[in-house]
Each structure stands twice: as C-alpha cells, then as structure tokens.
Design goal:
With about 110 residues, the protein is an all-beta fold. The chain has strands at about 5-10, 15-25, 35, 40-50, 60-65, 70-75, 85-95, 105-110.
C-alpha cells in the first residue's frame, strides 16, 4: 500500500482549464515536487468539488479520474467561470490499494 500522499500543483493559466500536476515531495531541492511516482505506484485517483467553500471532508468530493501520467487536464464550462475547484488525490498500486489523501488544493476557474 502506498505510504505517502501525492503533492498537487494546479496550473490555471488557460481560460476554463486546469492542469493538475502531481508527484512526490522533493526533499533534496528547492522544487516543490518531483513529477514521478513512488516505487510500486501505478497512478493517482483524483477527486474534486466545485463550490464556494473548501470541503471539510474528502467524502464530500466527487471522483474525477484515475490517471497514470501527470498532468491531468480538466476543462470547465463558461457558466463555471468565477467558481473555485478543489482537488485531492491519492496514489494507488498495481493491486488497486490506495494510500492516504493529499492536502486539498484549489484554483479559480477563469
């Protein structure tokens, strides 16, 4: 079972689009993350919620994707512009076992 949680970074520089970059903590440099998966990990499960307030529980968030290659692209509709999207993720291995959830991160839909 994966022991660590992924670190997420959101690029929201394009209109109506978020790129979710994920990786491991990089303790050896000034970079926030290394864009590679830990040993034995296949990919990430990403959950999300669009709303005004940060979710207080991961159970309030909805499944978004199982992804194996960073970044993951999310496209939004015009009526969602101005809202905030919240994301969290966990690693999963070849047996489908999941590790702990990441911190919840957010980005404005512009």
């Amino acid at each position: 079972v994966p022991a660590e949680s992924p670190v997420l970074e959101i690029d929201f520089s394009k209109s109506k689009e978020h790129l979710i970059y994920y990786g491991s903590k990089d303790l050896s440099s000034k970079k926030k993350i290394q864009r590679r998966k830990p040993k034995g990990v296949v990919g990430v499960e990403i959950i999300f919620l669009v709303g005004e307030k940060m979710p207080t529980d991961y159970d309030l968030m909805k499944p978004l994707a199982l992804d194996t290659s960073s970044p993951y692209r999310v496209t939004y509709e015009l009526h969602q512009v101005g809202q905030r999207a919240y994301y969290a993720a966990c690693w999963y291995n070849t047996k489908g076992e999941r590790g702990p959830w990441s911190e919840i991160v957010s980005a404005l839909i512009n």
